[in-house]
Design goal:
Helix content: 40-55%
Radius of gyration: 23 Å
Distance between the termini: 56 Å
């Protein structure tokens, strides 16, 4: 029995597929299967039931998962204690929301490339709920998501805060004294769909203001939201830096609010059981580079 065999078994047992597990340990699927078969031979136990469409853990495999996790955790702690975070190589799968993608993502990717040029970085952009699900399945290594981890299998480290402001076209803003319940009765609320971090910020504001939108218009793209606010007659939130740029060009106008908007906390999320040096390195870089005030190329 070797650590490589235990590592192959553990990720196969906890990822959504053998292909994903093989990617996690930087081997082919056939090599992963071979290591698991060697482990089964060493232990004299069948760890996966391969009769169905998808391999499932046997009773022996289920018992081995926490034992393998403990051994791998100790190995990762040794790597961390000895500073083994230089010269990382292999796949590096990042998940981010669109706000991160349009602000400080280029800085993050550049910093990762500078510190670890042999990493093969890929980026998946989606709303927070979808990113958390992909993390849970082992399809991502880390993800920048608004708020703390809500799944028991995930953990998170705060990295930055984002500030937002209410906006509308100058024509709409001219008819509003302030952002309040009356404004919500008169105009559609334009926002990202449910599952994004900013929807919680909006829901908190609506509750405090005692407001109920006359109707909602959901859109999954910040640039499109800005365009809809400029031309659809709706009201909505934009990141403060983008709002100031668009207001300076006369495209939009900020709306004063009697109820203050909260800040949106962002964190780097990863699987609780993932103590690889890669995760520690990405966490340190993200904490250093995170900045939602960076001007995006779109605005």
């Amino acid at each position: 029995m070797t650590l490589k065999q235990l590592e192959a078994f553990y990720w196969a047992a906890t990822c959504s597929s053998f292909a994903m597990a093989a990617d996690r340990v930087h081997v082919s699927v056939s090599s992963l299967s071979k290591r698991i078969a060697e482990l089964e031979a060493s232990l004299g136990q069948v760890l996966f039931d391969r009769a169905g469409h998808r391999a499932a853990l046997t009773e022996a495999g289920t018992r081995l998962v926490p034992l393998a996790a403990a051994l791998l955790r100790q190995t990762d702690l040794v790597h961390q204690a000895m500073g083994a975070t230089t010269g990382l190589r292999g796949p590096c799968r990042l998940g981010v929301g669109e706000l991160t993608a349009l602000t400080w993502l280029p800085r993050l990717v550049a910093a990762i490339g500078s510190a670890h040029p042999d990493l093969e970085v890929s980026v998946h952009v989606d709303v927070g709920a979808a990113l958390a699900e992909r993390l849970d399945k082992g399809e991502l290594d880390v993800a920048v998501i608004a708020g703390p981890a809500s799944r028991s299998a995930l953990t998170s480290v705060p990295i930055a805060q984002a500030t937002f402001t209410w906006c509308a076209s100058p024509a709409v803003a001219a008819g509003l004294a302030a952002m309040d319940a009356n404004a919500m009765k008169a105009h559609a609320l334009v926002s990202l769909p449910q599952g994004s971090g900013v929807t919680q910020l909006i829901d908190d504001w609506l509750r405090q203001a005692g407001a109920q939108p006359v109707r909602r218009l959901h859109c999954n793209h910040w640039g499109a939201i800005a365009g809809l606010l400029a031309h659809s007659g709706g009201i909505g939130l934009l990141p403060l830096g983008w709002a100031q740029a668009l207001c300076g060009r006369g495209v939009l106008q900020q709306l004063p609010s009697r109820v203050p908007l909260g800040l949106l906390d962002y964190a780097l999320h990863h699987r609780r059981d993932d103590l690889r040096p890669l995760v520690a390195a990405l966490r340190d870089i993200a904490v250093r580079e995170a900045d939602f005030t960076v001007a995006g190329s779109v605005f």
